[in-house]
Design goal:
By secondary structure, the chain is mainly alpha-helical. It has a single domain, classed as MFS general substrate transporter like domains (Growth Hormone, Chain: A). The protein is 82% helix and 0% strand. It contains 15 helices and no strands. The protein has helices at 6-25, 31-37, 42-70, 72-91, 96-124, 127-141, 143-159, 162-182, 198-207, 210-240, 245-273, 275-300, 304-330, 337-359, 368-389. Helix 3 (42-70) runs antiparallel to helix 14, helix 10 packs antiparallel against helix 13 (304-330) and helix 10 (210-240) runs parallel beside helix 14 (337-359). The longest helix has 31 residues, at 210-240. The two termini are 28 Å apart. 55% of the residues are buried.
Length: 398
């Protein structure tokens, strides 16, 4: 696939990463409805999001090495099938327990598609070029929130909440079609590594690398800003601000546009300023967005435009943070990109799902809890950045 133009490659890989993105985004408008349909609490409904993300992360620890042994093509096909099965079971769920389990199956398929997409990029590119491609892929993911919640809202209002999951099953079929006709193997046999007793040693090699740890934390904190918005936005916009379910997606699209343009701008900034400076700029934007959200809510109250504007600033910074950090994570591991990509996915999704679950322990009565979360993420990331600048973490990435 190396002969493809970069943007053509992104277009080919887009349906794969869309499966993960749509698995979250199209579902967001119906989260409050799931609470009412299954007679449960916001915290339990939150598990359909957080366990989806957690499964996506932990599953990559297994799927990444498998892709290093069997190649990218086979794993993509198997993952697409799991995604289809999980989506169908979600549509047929009769209680919240079944929905949670079905969502975890769907997440297992989504995580395979996601980790192999990142591994394919590392197979084909390195250095600042790979950083640019990772940022572009994150930008492509940003297309999903611009219209997935709109689709989800109208599907739910017109045909019921089950239609959302039937749509995801159709997306999985599209991914399977794309795999069969447009994706070729990018991992030569001579570069493959068997899964065996040495798998723990390979993960130990990855996770003991100080450069990996700090950049994986940066990526996880960036994804946390996005995921916490997934968790609280429907409750704030639909329940507190009384926006209709079918209109929710139009406001959520603001987030998608920020992620889209943030990803592509990150690619340009990395090429000009390097990874670490791009990360620092992202942290400053996250802090600014969190402080703006906190002060406007305290002094002006909860208003849709101020909430969206401050969220946009924070998410724009998070796009810088997550996109640049992904390249910093992957760069030291050209010989086991699948394992490194799995470690990255597990780290960032475990971090974000844990913080998102913690956030939902507080009743969503305003945007203050989300603002405090954003500020806390920025402070932790800033401390990591200062440690990196003082060379407490030795890194070969600049």
């Amino acid at each position: 696939m190396k002969h493809h133009n970069k943007f053509i490659l992104i277009f080919i890989l887009a349906p794969l990463v869309f499966s993960f993105a749509f698995g979250l985004d199209i579902y967001v408008p119906i989260v409050p409805e799931m609470q009412r349909v299954f007679h449960t609490t916001p915290f339990i409904v939150q598990l359909t999001l957080s366990l989806f993300l957690l499964t996506t992360g932990i599953g990559q620890l297994i799927i990444g090495p498998l892709s290093d042994q069997f190649g990218r093509y086979r794993i993509i096909a198997l993952s697409a099938i799991l995604f289809i099965i999980g989506s169908i079971l979600s549509a047929c769920s009769v209680d919240i327990g079944m929905l949670i389990m079905a969502r975890m199956i769907c997440a297992l398929g989504a995580c395979g598609l996601l980790v192999v997409s990142f591994a394919i990029i590392r197979d084909l590119y390195s250095g600042k070029e790979s950083a640019q491609m990772y940022s572009f892929i994150n930008g492509a993911i940003g297309i999903s929130p611009t219209f997935a919640p709109i689709i989800g809202g109208y599907l739910a209002v017109t045909w019921g909440w089950q239609a959302v999951f039937w749509f995801l099953a159709a997306l999985g079929i599209l991914v399977l079609f794309t795999t069969c006709f447009f994706i070729t193997e990018t991992l030569p046999y001579e570069r493959r590594q068997k899964v065996g007793r040495n798998i723990l040693q390979r993960y130990w090699t990855v996770f003991r690398n100080k450069s990996f740890l700090v950049y994986a934390c940066f990526a996880g904190l960036g994804i946390t800003i996005f995921f916490c918005f997934f968790s609280v936005s429907s409750f704030i916009i639909i329940d507190l601000l009384h926006i209709a379910v079918q209109n929710f997606g139009y406001y959520f699209a603001v987030f998608g546009l920020v992620l889209l343009f943030g990803g592509f701008i990150t690619g340009l900034l990395v090429m000009r300023f390097g990874i670490n400076k791009t990360i620092f700029y992202g942290i400053l934007l996250i802090l600014l967005g969190g402080l703006l959200m906190l002060f406007t809510n305290i002094y002006l109250g909860l208003h849709l435009m101020t909430f969206l504007f401050s969220t946009a600033i924070a998410c724009f910074g998070a796009a810088f943070l997550a996109g640049a950090a992904a390249a910093g994570v992957m760069e030291p591991f050209p010989h086991m990109a699948g394992t490194a990509a799995a470690g990255l996915g597990a780290s960032q999704f475990i971090i974000s799902s844990a913080i998102g679950t913690l956030l939902m322990h507080w009743p969503v009565t305003s945007s203050i809890s989300y603002a405090i979360c954003i500020i806390s993420v920025a402070v932790v990331a800033l401390l990591l950045s200062l440690c990196l600048k003082q060379k407490i973490f030795q890194s070969k990435v600049t």
